[in-house]
Design goal:
By secondary structure, the protein is mostly helical. The chain contains 13 helices and two strands; from the N terminus they run αααββαααααααααα. Strands 1-2 form a two-stranded antiparallel ribbon. β1 and β2 form a beta hairpin. α8 runs antiparallel to α11. The chain is elongated and about 75 Å long.
């Protein structure tokens, strides 16, 4: 008798599996199992977001570089009364070394007396760039925090309360949007000139919240119709508590990702304003002001232009990569295109 071989028959006794009948649910479970480390341990939503973020190589590399830049800027020359480990400052003039060129070499590695070179009058450029990075980082993160608070508050109020409150807040947002941010920031920067870096950062924050407000409003409009919000309203929970405890935590992904974009944009806005003369003023300095001061030295002393430009590019790219990692961590479906 001839034996017929069944292609679906498995010699080890396992049940036959039709590869054409796998479901998309199986793929989703595989992804989620991978995210949870294929263990039986359950994770909270926050823990899952953290695990996804830590597995994002680009974001991790950017975070390491950004932390290095922050530590280098604030520990090298110190801040306020706290001294740094670098022996030179932004005020004193030093004898010209190597005709003002950078003394740092990669091979054989050596830092030298002036690793970033000297400016046209003999100041140590490493100290100047570190001070500029301090000011630019401070402005960028202050703008990010202020704009995020304003945009989240206005967007949440407009999206949840609706009616005349939404109409007023959104028309005010539209009014800010139609005015070019750089022009408005320049006018406000000129008005507060002499008021210091704090006031400049505050003014920039007051004109940078519009995009986030519209995004938060759209998110809140969707969330306010969910069952858990209806249940909170049914038991008489006050509106501010519903927004803070029930709606905003579910919109946290949108808020955090756009906050990082605001920080990145603030770096470039401050650079543009300082370059145009509406931002940080001497005797203090920023990365944008350094580029503005030494733009004419590009052909004779190009390192005076390269170093602040490199730090601006590095900070902006790192913040953007971190924002990409946070976006993928809060919404992993964007990785499954």
């Amino acid at each position: 008798m001839t034996s017929h071989h069944d292609p679906h028959h498995l010699d080890d006794g396992d049940a036959p599996v039709d590869p054409d009948k796998t479901t998309p649910t199986d793929d989703l479970l595989t992804v989620e199992d991978d995210l949870e480390g294929k263990t039986d341990k359950s994770y909270s939503q926050g823990a899952l977001v953290l695990r996804r973020f830590l597995r994002h190589r680009g974001a991790m590399a950017a975070l390491v570089v950004l932390l290095f830049v922050v530590l280098l800027a604030f520990t090298s020359i110190g801040i306020g009364p706290i001294p740094g480990w670098w022996g030179k400052n932004t005020v004193d003039l030093y004898p010209q070394v190597n005709m003002g060129r950078p003394t740092m070499q990669l091979w054989p590695f050596q830092i030298g007396e002036h690793p970033f070179g000297q400016d046209t009058i003999g100041k140590d450029y490493f100290a100047l760039v570190m001070r500029g990075a301090q000011i630019s980082l401070f402005i960028a993160f202050t703008v990010g925090i202020v704009a995020t608070l304003i945009g989240t508050t206005i967007g949440a109020a407009a999206g949840y309360v609706r009616g005349i409150v939404e109409a007023f807040l959104m028309r005010m947002t539209d009014l800010f949007i139609i005015i070019p941010t750089l022009v408005l920031a320049a006018v406000l920067g000129r008005m507060v000139s002499g008021g210091g870096v704090w006031l400049l950062a505050l003014m920039l924050g007051l004109v940078s919240w519009t995009g986030l407000a519209r995004l938060v409003r759209a998110e809140v409009l969707s969330l306010r119709e969910r069952e858990f919000v209806a249940a909170a309203r049914a038991i008489g929970t006050p509106t501010p508590r519903i927004i803070v405890q029930h709606i905003l935590p579910n919109a946290l992904g949108t808020i955090v990702v756009n906050a990082t974009l605001l920080i990145s944009a603030a770096i470039l806005t401050e650079t543009a304003l300082s370059f145009l003369g509406f931002g940080v003023r001497p005797p203090d300095t920023s990365l944008g002001l350094l580029i503005s001061d030494y733009q004419n030295a590009l052909t004779t002393r190009p390192w005076l232009f390269w170093w602040p430009g490199a730090f601006i590019l590095m900070i902006a790219l790192c913040v953007n990569f971190i924002g990409d990692g946070l976006r993928d961590a809060f919404d992993p479906r964007q990785q499954m295109d």
